Amino acid sequence: MLFGPHVAVLRSFAESHLTGGPDDALILLKLEHSLRVFDNAGHILDAEGVKGRMADLARLAALYHDMGRFPQYARYRTFNDRDSANHARLGVLALRGMEMPPGLSGHDWRIVRFAVAQHNAKSLNPALPARLELPVTVVRDADKLDIIRILLDHFEGNGEPSQAVIHRLDDAPDLYSEEIYDAIINGRTGDYRHMRYANDFKLLLMGWLDGLRYRSSLDMALERNYPARLLAQLPNDARIRRLGDAALSRISSCA
């Protein structure tokens, strides 16, 4: 499949939301993120030896997974779904309303849109049909890997600081929420609704590492030193050290 025309569609759609103001940096951040998720998905599929039509559709879903972010920010001036609208649903609506490059059937596009719709779900429906599992799980892994990169750049001071990146959470250096801590140390997925502090986001990302579906995804996270870098950004107290030991043990057992 030729992906160039689809990259051009994404780029054109994203750039149509530029206004010439300071917030353009956030639109461009999401465009760069989409392209990196597309690349991550390709790396996962290649490393896992997955080829064919479903691999192509998984890559397309990765490319288009955040289409809803551009109208979301233009309309609401936030990337926080709780304060605006579900960006996955906005992305599906955008894809339905656009003229897309030829070559895909209506059935193909339904698979792409389904993966877009599911990419930000807290957890997957256990009854997910096997034929849809690949595009959904590849997109989710590829997305999480790049979100961790973006947040680490923010926390380490390597990226453009923006409260929009951390959903305007309180950046108190020593505080984190008990609900998030309890979920992560017990190997569960943290809930966005319980996040109050920037450290909660860091804990949430530690939990994401536990939940990566593919060995190649975990290998990418380890090659980029994500676990140690996340732990270095959290308070150096006994409870966080215990959480780090538990998380690293689970990750190592999967590697």
From TrEMBL:
InterPro entries found in the cross-reference section: HD/PDEase_dom, HD_domain
Pfam families with a match to the protein in the record: HD (PF01966)
Coiled-coil annotated spans: none
Domain annotation HD: ranges: 30-148
Signal peptide annotation: none
Protein name: HD domain-containing protein
